[in-house]
Amino acid sequence: MGAENKTDEEKQNGDGTLFDLNDYTIIKEGDAEILMHAKNEVFYNKTQVNNRDMSVAVLRTFISQRKQEHEAMLTRRRTKAGNKVPDAKAEIPDDSGQHNGESNDGSEVLEDASHNESCSKPEEETKNLRGKGREELKPPRVLEALSASGLRALRYAREVEGISQVVALDNDKASVEACRRNIKFNGSVACSKVESHLADARVYMLTHPKEFDVVDLDPYGAPSVFLDSAVQSVADGGMLMCTATDMAVLCGGNGEVCYSKYGSYPLRGKYCHEMALRILLASIESHANRYKRYIVPVLSVQMDFYVRVFVRIYTSASDMKSTPLKLSYVYQCTGCDSFHLQPVGRTVSKNNSVRYLPGFGPAVSQECSDCGKKFNMGGPIWSAPIHDQEWVAAILADVKSMKDRYPAYERISAVLTTVSEELPDIPLFLSLHNLCATLKCTSPSAVIFRSAVINAGYRISGTHVNPLGLKTDAPMDVIWDIMRCWIKNHPVKAQPSDQAGSVILAKEPVLQANFSRAVASLSKAQAKKVARFLPNPERHWGPKLRAGRQITSKHVSLLGPKALNGINNHENGDGSNHEDVEEPAAKRKKTEESDS
């Protein structure tokens, strides 16, 4: 068909072939629009709008921080150079064959400098300035390693200012075709910035070391197979964004599988989602260490059905030695809620030297000092801070200033607000309801319990992971003393003497708790009644089917009956199901029984 005969319903694919718009649904998110076929050919999940909004917000802040760090680095370099380099241009011959101020042999050096400029390492600062071109900060390049429809890459290109290029990869031909179609559908800005390639992300990242300022990993399932190549592809001072949706594995459902994928053993407790975050961070750090690199987390969140981490990656053999100080094993009592951390390493300072030694142990005895039960041991996990509070404040301020640009503004601002009020240096958390369940007592209000901890001289905060979670630096014996004092005023029925609660209550409290209301018992957000934990915006809000899978009636719980009917109607044109694959009789009978 010639171009002059094309109707309004016909468009061109990225390869020049025509397609009918009537076969597609236009989905708009942020400033980007994508064409989705009614069949489940290319993966798309509406729920991930929270993930994409958060990523856009972090990327905006990263570009701003990167500029500030580069300017500060240049200022320090000029100060150190002093009068040694009065005229930087005079130090380098003015070759007429230069391009953009580069020397004939300086292209590779300039590329390395552009990737390392945000790291601000002392060894870099001591280098002399070599021409005006070296002071320029190149716009960041972004790699989306698993692009599917390309929606995330398109949003980065259209919504985040200052990005020079977004490379979208996928090893599925249908996904690459869809991505290229969507790039063209989004106009000239997308066409000039976004590239789509059919490639194995692992091979591509390995063959492009330190070339991307931002690498985004958002796989369907575990990211573990991509981590080794991803940490090598990020430039010094760049950012790795990583999602893990295999929460059943990370939260202790299959501990042995988690150990094989991430190198850590999970524990099943109320804090399991935060532990999942810390296991993922420990795994990324482990992969980075193999290449004399280390990570600095700026934001780590658990939302919906996944965890998402944003980490800076730097190269330094000396700083890498501190990794064992940031990792710990976790001892969780099997009878009560007591848990203890065992650091992997420690340091000893003598004169001006620092020695790195194994951590002291054991952190606990064979039996719990509170209830007398045994311990389960998990880890190692990342026990250092998982957020940079300055970054969180900057991200939250940016989100609030541009609320109309974020489709999921309410949700991400609520998460960021809660994160901003967490105690950054306290790993894991307690559940007040679990404490009371152990003791078989009525629960004090969160304000009363917080006040008792504060009045005892300790810090306490909430957590974004669980509305009932409480982070505190109070040791477990203080926590149990507070609960013993509470039960003295709110007696409980006698329980069998061998139960953990009975053993705990048999001891007299050493600390006399003060339950009078403390000023800091409510966070600023709570005092202002800011929403922090929001319900899902609609039913069936969660993970979706992997692309290419047959959609049948058993997927109603994931997609909803309307979506299922829409698929069938589109395939058959008349609403009939004569082309749909029938379910086995046993499954059909089971479905009918459950419906009745």
Describe the structure.
The protein is an alpha+beta fold. The chain has a domain at 424-528: 2-Layer Sandwich (Phenylalanyl-tRNA Synthetase, Chain B, domain 1), CATH 3.30.56.70. Helices cover 37% and strands 19% of the residues. The chain contains 22 helices and 19 strands. It has a seven-stranded mixed beta sheet, sandwiched between helices. Strand 12 and strand 13 form a beta hairpin. Helix 1 (49-81) crosses helix 13. It is globular.
Low-confidence stretches: 1-8, 87-133, 569-596
β-sheet strand percentage: 15-25%
* CATH architecture title of one domain: 2-Layer Sandwich
CA-CA gap between termini: 53 Å
CATH class of one domain: Alpha Beta
Q: What is the helix fraction of residues, given as a range?
A: 25-40%
Radius of gyration: 28 Å
How confident overall, as mean pLDDT?
82
The SS-based structural class is alpha+beta
User: What is the CATH topology of one domain?
Assistant: Phenylalanyl-tRNA Synthetase, Chain B, domain 1
Number of beta strands: 19
Helix count, DSSP H or I runs of 4 or more residues: 22
Largest sheet: 7 strands, mixed
Strand order of the largest sheet: 7-6-5-8-9-11-10
CATH superfamily of one domain: N2,N2-dimethylguanosine tRNA methyltransferase, C-terminal domain
How would the global form be characterised? Answer: globular
